[in-house]
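Limitations

Structures in this collection are predictions, not experimental determinations, and the ligand pose is part of the prediction. Treat each record accordingly. The example that follows, with NAP as the small molecule, is included so readers can see exactly what is and is not provided: the inputs are given verbatim, and the output is the predicted complex.
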Amino acid sequence: MRTLVTGGSGFLGSHLVELLEARGHDVTVPRSADYDLTRADDAERLFDDAQPDLVFHVAALAGGINANRVAPGRFWYANLLMGAFVLEQSRVHGVEKLVMLGTICEYPKFAPVPFHEDDLWNGFPEETNAPYGIAKKAHLVGGQAYRDQYGLDVVHLLPVNLYGPRDNFDLETSHVIPALIRKMTAGEKRVTLWGDGSPTREFLFVEDAARGIAVAGERYEGREPVNLGSGAEISIRDLAELIADLTGFDGEIEWDTTKPNGQPRRQLDVSRARQLFGFEATTSLRDGLERTIAWYRANAAATAV
Ligand SMILES: NC(=O)c1ccc[n+]([C@@H]2O[C@H](COP(=O)([O-])OP(=O)(O)OC[C@H]3O[C@@H](n4cnc5c(N)ncnc54)[C@H](OP(=O)(O)O)[C@@H]3O)[C@@H](O)[C@H]2O)c1
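Predicted complex:
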């Protein structure tokens, strides 16, 4: 099976590539310096060169709440175009299946918790990451339209917030878990966090996510979007205390309530993935955090930005 993984050099993509290679796939991993997927001609050249049977579209311009606030236009434009070009080239090159990575940011701000896939269209997403979320939501509609018109097998997955080894620890662009680990291992007496700590989030260990995506690529052929999560909800305050405990941080945790909280609650209904392709997360948050912290301690010098 000739398999193309766009974004295969990134955090999630690198774990997915390792897993696919272990399962016997012949994997191509393009780099953005060679193939800028926001350009139609580069996307065409990539598919000409790789001639894939199976495509996982993992490439994205992604980041935490700050990155989304600073560059909403670029997040919308880059993500919209990359997905559109990969979808079109998958059609032109007759790929057998395209798996597109969506995001929990596609959900309405006030979707009933736990988020069920049937509620995706019942409201506008949380404002700070709406440009990113809506660009990816357009891929869901595009994938279904290409399935209907051209018979292209396009699968759309909605992963919750991910964490694990090789995550992005750059404080300008990182998500909450790597930011907390970095701040709490820096020897500071005080760590200041955005918001009031009340919002809840769900986290999925990156190796579990990679397994869910690989299995969906092998076993799922449907048009309906599917959540990928752990189903476990935790407040940012409890998360901060857990990471403080696991890193041995004994300083003060301060909450900057002039900064936004982001979406009030996030937790996924994970039953569809279990029913349709038997996926369940197996790594507990504590175990996953311990592995992430151990990886960061071993690689901190290399990842510090
Ligand atoms: N991380 C999360 O918590 C999370 C949660 C839900 C969904 N997701 C989704 O999962 C996917 C992977 O996220 P991630 O956190 O692993 O991202 P990441 O580490 O930032 O990796 C991004 C990848 O996209 C590639 N890329 C970026 N711009 C590109 C361009 N213009 N042309 C070609 N390739 C480009 C990068 O390639 P180069 O290194 O060569 O530049 C890199 O391999 C994304 O689709 C994201 O939306 C992530």
